Amino acid sequence: MKIDDIVFLNSSAVFAIAIIFLLICLILKKSPQSLGSYKYLMIYIDLFELAYAFLYFLEKPKLLTKESAFFLIVNWKESLFPKFVVCVLDLLFVGCFGFSIAILALHFIYRFFSITNNPHLKSFDSWKIVLWFMIPALNGLAFMCTGGILMSADPQTDRFLNENYQEISENTTSLEDLYYVGPLFWPKHDNSTTEQYFSWKAAKACIIAMGVITISSSIMLYFGVKGYRMMSKLIATAGVSYKFKTIQKQLFIALLFQTAIPVFLMHLPATAIYVTIFLGNSKEIIGEIISLTIALYPALNPIPTLFVVKNYRKAIIDAFCYFFNIAGCGQKVVPMTITATASTRNSNILDRS
């Protein structure tokens, strides 16, 4: 990995950790009462993104996309952790992808329940919220198991990596130093350098992954469309308070932005990778690009909430104003006070005369 890329990844992770921590503080201290149990869902999402940023900062797995292969690779000799921990961390990256798309679906479900005052909304105010929170975790676990079993290394993927991974060909590392997972759709026959066959192992893994993604995306689309329609009716209703309408609209707009960011930075690029490797025509540049875009996800995703929700935006603006007023006190505030005092004295003299 290039030095510039490492600097970018580290900077992105540090920024993400800082801004997520800020958002969590604002949710705990500045949330309007009308937010209700939604703040717990927001904190849950932020804690996931915080863990994701820490994970990326510590390991920074490399993505290899070439021909019909897509591998997530970590070098355990370059890691701070033992080999077993490095393997688990690599699988956690796979799980994070499944977790992120499921938590978006849960987000849309909650917003729809909140807008329509659905009876199921009460389940978020009781211990049943744990059951809701388990859905993304189980989705992430399903991705981890798929990666660890159906996308695990085998002789065909080892051969492909030996022939195509630059660090191995340049003798800067060896296959024994690496742990990787990922599909290889068209491996070569053992006794051939050109003849290929279709890997049903890779196909099964991708069917499971794309199936889970399709289900989560369908849930988002269904509840997103219904939520938008109900939001439009809600805004036109006279009997609902202006404050309630405003906060619901703000949260819905923030949700749309929070959906667009991971979709464009993670899910669409990943889908493009699956299509290109199935066709046997993927390029290494695709993996290099997505390794940078997925690093931006936890850094950018909290920003819409910070600026769309009025309470959080006002708290940030007030903090900036306070800071700059304090910083400028010695130079601006005192001279203005002296000038004002002098002007007052001159005015009094003129009045007396």
From TrEMBL:
Localization of this protein: Cell projection, Cilium membrane
Q: How does it sit in the membrane?
A: Multi-pass membrane protein
Report one GO cellular component.
plasma membrane
Entry's transmembrane regions = 6-28, 40-58, 80-109, 129-151, 202-225, 251-277, 289-309
Chief subcellular location: membrane
**What GO molecular function annotation could you give as one example from this UniProt entry?**
G protein-coupled olfactory receptor activity
- SUPFAM superfamilies tied to this protein: Family A G protein-coupled receptor-like
Query: How does this chain assemble?
Result: Interacts with odr-4.
Q: Name the family.
A: Belongs to the nematode receptor-like protein str family.
- Chain's role: An odorant receptor which affects chemotaxis to the volatile odorant diacetyl. Specifies AWA neuronal cell fate via the odr-7 pathway.
What's the protein called, per UniProt? Serpentine receptor class r-10
What organism is listed for this UniProt entry?
A: Caenorhabditis elegans
